[in-house]
Amino acid sequence: SPEELRRNLIVVVSYRRLTLEAMREKREKQKAHSSFVSKPALSSLRRIVFTRIVVDEGHTVGRSIRTEHAHFLSSLNAGSRWILTGTPVALSKPREDVKVLEAMLKFLHPTLFSATAAAGRDSSDIFRRLVGNPVVRGCCGGMRRASDTLARIMLQHTKKEVGRLLPRLSRKTVLLQPSPIERSTYNTLVSVVQMNLLTTSIGDSNEGWGVSLLNPKNRKMMLETMLNLRLSCVGGGPQIVELEPMATQEVANEMRRYWEAHQMKKENLALNGIDVEHKVAKAVKFVQELGESKPFSCVCGMEGLLLRYLGPCGHAFCAECVTATNLHCPWCKFGPFDADRWAFLQPGTKVHWMETLTERLHKIRGRAVTTQQRRLSTSPIFREDFREGEKYHGQSHRQENACADSRKPSSLSLPFMANRAVIEDSTYMLELSQKAHYVIQEIKALLARRKGKSISTKCLIYSSMRKCLDLVGTSLIHTFGKNAVGEFYSSRNQLELRKFTHDEVLTWRCDKCGAGDGFENDWSSDCCQRELVHIITDDGRNGSTAHTVMPKDVLDGDFLGRVISIGQRVSWSSRLGDQTEAREGTVVKARRCSVRRPRNVLPIRQKVRCHVLLLTREGSHGLDLSMVERVFLIDKIWNPAEEEQVIARAWRIGSKRAEVRVEQLLLKGTLEEMVHAMPSARPSNISAEVMKGLRYIRPERGRSKRETRR
Q: Torsion over CA of 665, 669, 675 and 679, rounded to 10 degrees?
């Protein structure tokens, strides 16, 4: 009630509570309107006049001005209003930053804006005309008005002013030599970009510009390509080249057309002794090898490339062997090529991660398994009908291979590629990246130096991409154990943060889904969260099948972010006495245990030694991690303001360390090194600038795998 609130000196309210109060008021107004009540009940917070309202992380008020809690917060009565924030603007979108500033000013001085509106003038329009639009255009007058306004209402404290209260900060850049798989993955994606930019810039520029990655209309495709390039710098992975269904026939026809046009141009029926059908045969072989994703070695010394150009002479070469002004074959020096016809000679290709295609194949199998299960009414799901479903899988795969030979894909098949059998039979193998290896070695060295001491080791690992943290986090968990790594990007953020800051976890044990001592769940979970999979296993001795339920975390090859699909083939190890038996089967159902927590059970307090916290963008601000001594930036942060925010989680007043060390990990010769060398004032079209400067990573022999720049 308002009377109880008035008896307190300070009232602490969360954003969620403000949202609930706003929603309750909204319901009261609707109820009053339906019952013809003139004065609906107001929230207790709105019936009090506060001396001062202090909003922590106040930049969220500007960014979420249209939300329920922002409207409710602006309607509270107070003698003065304060906003506290340590999060700077992004500096990359001036128009959005001006909108945030306008919203914060409306909260701080609502009477000023309301008085302007009462005078018949739109306050927002006046602000945009005098301040907002000039600031966006970079006009001196608008910048001066904004500075004068903020100088009267803003107090600013920088790190330089409170430097004596901060620990020592040391920063260094670590250049790592990429592993062979990282080099191959990155070079393949660079080939995609270079081939797109070259083939769309020669010949008919209007037609090529429509599919160019530099075209603003293709921004989504450009951002996806940049994301894949950044992922390849943190481990990479197996890749598959996808061809268009009629690629072989189209390339053969284009090769014939090229030499027919060349014949008419030269007016020489013999074509100087050139055998056109031999050129066509070489082109067909080129397409077949490309579809099989066989690594290619170019005459310039590049090795392990999946994509390459096809010359009219039948030779293959990499994307860096030709330019728009030098269209000659590096092998036989044939040229210059006819730009338009040579561009049409290249087969249509796409590059996929093998992991992605494997998941798509699992979905296709899942639909087949689901279809078979619908046919099973009262009979157990592991009877003869399911064996027919397994037989259907084999027939489906043979049909897909037959379609691959005839270049006519079926409706349930994956995109045409000659090595589809490789995708089906292989499993995604997680390989240790150079960055993960470096982080593990550094943490081991820290633990060795602190052995026997009471001071604990605390490290922060940041990446703006969840997949990068999954890859590095899996390697860390396999090395140091689950309790040594906290994940601040899941549904258990607060518990994982407590595990890292207090070295303590609160759990309860589910005895129904786990063998032995059961499965331990976080105390905040009312139901058991263990993921279970129902598997059909084959008994090779009598041809029968059996149904079993297995926890997902005991399957072979488990890693962070792994998704189990219906129809997927999985394997695990079963222990029978002193012997271990390898078993495998097909997943027919995936679910959670969902057993409810008993009412009378008490939390199990377990002391752990958590050394690492994995952090992504949602934890880049608002966290106090003053116990951290080492910060690893796994990938290059393109926004300098975001990078400073991440470092400020550990380098802050109240830090318990004498020194905070920040290490930026970069792969040498990649786009990460290119972005790192750019000035702080990044261009608005930074992605286009990076794409134009992409080059292959060439192997360097006799060099150290690590270089350090301070």
A: 100
| 617-655 as b/e: b if 16+ CB within 10 A | bebbbebebbbbbbbbbbbbbbebebbbbbbbbbbbeeb
Structure tokens given for 193: 């970009």
- The span from the CA of 661 to the CA of 631, in Å, is 6
Instruction: Specify the 3-state DSSP secondary structure of 706.
Output: strand
9: helix, strand or coil: coil
User: Packing angle between helix 94-108 and helix 140-153, nearest 10 degrees?
Assistant: 40
Query: What is the distance, to the nearest Å, from the Cα of residue 42 to the centroid of all Cα atoms in its chain?
Result: 44
List strand residue ranges (DSSP E) for 318-477, in order. Answer: 349-353, 459-462
pLDDT tens for each residue of 365-379: 666 656 655 554 434
Give the separation between CA 375 and CA 386, rounded to whole angstroms: 9
Tell me: the pLDDT tens digits for 683-699? 667 778 888 889 999 87
Measured CA to CA, the distance from residue 303 to residue 289 in angstroms comes to 15
In order of 198, 235, 478, the CA distances from 486 in angstroms are: 45, 21, 13
Dihedral of CA atoms 682, 687, 689, 695 in degrees, nearest 10, equals: 120
Quick check: 596 and 513 in contact, CB under 8 A? no
Q: Please check whether residue 280 is in contact with residue 287, taking contact to mean a CB–CB distance below 8 angstroms.
A: no
DSSP 131: I
Q: What is the pLDDT of residues 421-474, one digit of tens each?
A: 333 333 333 456 899 999 999 999 999 988 877 778 899 999 988 888 888 888
Q: What is the residue whose two structure tokens read 């990246």?
A: 433
Task: Give me the count of residues in the chain.
Answer: 710
Strands (E), 225-267: 239-243
Contacts of 370 (CB under 8 A, 6+ apart): 566
Nearest-angstrom CA–CA distance, 188 and 353 = 11
For 40, counting Cβ atoms within 10 Å of its Cβ (0-12 exposed, 13-18 middle, 19+ buried), the class is middle
For residue 386, what are the contacts with CB-CB under 8 A and spacing of at least 6? 372, 376, 536, 545, 588
* pLDDT tens readout for residues 25-83: 888 877 777 766 666 678 888 888 899 999 887 777 766 555 677 778 888 888 899 98
